[in-house]
Specification:
About 5% of the residues lie in helices and about 40% in strands. The chain has four helices and 20 strands. It starts with 7 loop residues before the first strand and ends with a strand.
């Protein structure tokens, strides 16, 4: 790349060829050295049918206008969530991690209502592709959304694997104050279809309430129709959760740091973490990772490999949502170069 200096790079693709996270690990994380190189020399330009194009920095000033109808805004959050899984438990840290530039981030802690974690799969019946999004709905309004990107066993037994191998989803619904939520698919034509629990799964958590329309977070009302999607809810559970607000000092840009260091008042145990710049935002804003008992009370996450981390930029606040059976009472947060 240094020799050829390509003007444009296809960074992410959700519609053609091999899935970027074909085994659950996003390609941006697998090829983290390539990602780091691109982040310092290229910027998102536009999305063409699910393909995110990056343009070399020195060409932006003379780039022609983006053709009408193509997505050219909010592109740092265009890919699916940056999902590490259990990877942070096994990182080999740089030998100079202790002497790298760092900044301690003031935090504000607050307990939250339990988080509802729902898994399942959903395929658009018309296109035989994953639905555009899976929506969690309370009183007819969307409170969380996720783009399917996983390969669930339930899909394989129902639809040929080659038809739509990444139609599985996991959606976390935080602190709605409601006892039940409803799950809908957002289809390619803009309609929405209810997703029902399989064999009573999620009874008491996932409801089946008939709405004529569902209002998404952009204020648009989508008509509810039947038989536009094939899918189901495989599981739904509630777990304890809390939110730690990271109050970033003025002038700090996340793109200048490569690692997030978390230190807990006691062992993290088996917990799940979601970092975002907007509570309730679509999953493309999220950086997600898990901790295991072996990690103790300190974990480093290589957030610099995530496009979302570059997109947070000079945000004043980030939000770290944690779910698990036993959560540390408090944590400290450092950004490390």
């Amino acid at each position: 790349m240094e020799k050829s200096r390509p003007p444009v790079v296809i960074f992410n693709n959700t519609t053609f060829g091999l899935i970027p996270s074909y085994d659950g690990i996003p390609q941006a994380l697998r090829s983290y050295a390539v990602s780091a190189y691109l982040y310092t020399r290229y910027r998102p330009l536009l999305d063409v049918q699910g393909q995110l194009l990056l343009l070399r920095d020195d060409l932006f000033a003379t780039a022609p206008p983006v053709p009408a109808g193509l997505k050219s805004t909010n592109l740092y959050f265009d890919p699916p969530a940056c999902t590490f899984g259990d990877i942070p438990n096994f990182f080999t840290l740089p030998s100079d991690i202790a002497t790298r530039p760092r900044v301690s981030i003031p935090v504000t802690y607050q307990p939250n209502d339990p988080t509802t974690i729902v898994t399942g799969w959903a395929v658009d019946a018309a296109t035989q592709r994953p639905v555009t999004q899976v929506l969690a709905v309370v009183d007819g309004h969307v409170v969380a959304a996720v783009k399917p990107s996983q390969v669930p066993a339930g899909l394989i037994r129902t639809i040929p694997r080659s038809s739509s191998p990444n139609s599985g989803y996991t959606i976390d619904v935080y602190g709605t104050g409601s006892e039940t939520i409803d799950l809908y698919s957002l289809n390619a034509d803009g309609s929405v279809t209810p997703l029902t629990p399989m064999g009573g799964t999620g009874s008491g958590v996932v409801g089946v309430y008939p709405f004529s329309t569902v209002v998404t977070q952009d204020g648009h009302a989508h008509p509810v129709v039947a038989n536009e999607a094939i899918g189901e809810v495989d599981s739904a559970v509630k777990v304890p959760t809390d939110v730690t607000t990271l109050n970033l000092p003025s002038g700090i840009s996340t793109s200048h740091y490569q690692w997030l260091e978390l230190s807990g008042s006691h062992h993290f145990g088996s917990s799940s973490f979601t970092l975002t710049d907007q509570l309730g935002a679509p999953s493309g804003h999220n950086i997600e990772f898990n901790t295991l008992s072996r990690v103790g009370n300190q974990v480093y996450v290589g957030v610099g490999s995530c496009l979302q981390w570059q997109g947070y930029g000079t945000a004043q606040h980030l939000y770290l949502q944690r779910t698990g059976k036993k959560l540390p009472k408090s944590i400290s947060v450092d950004l490390v170069g």
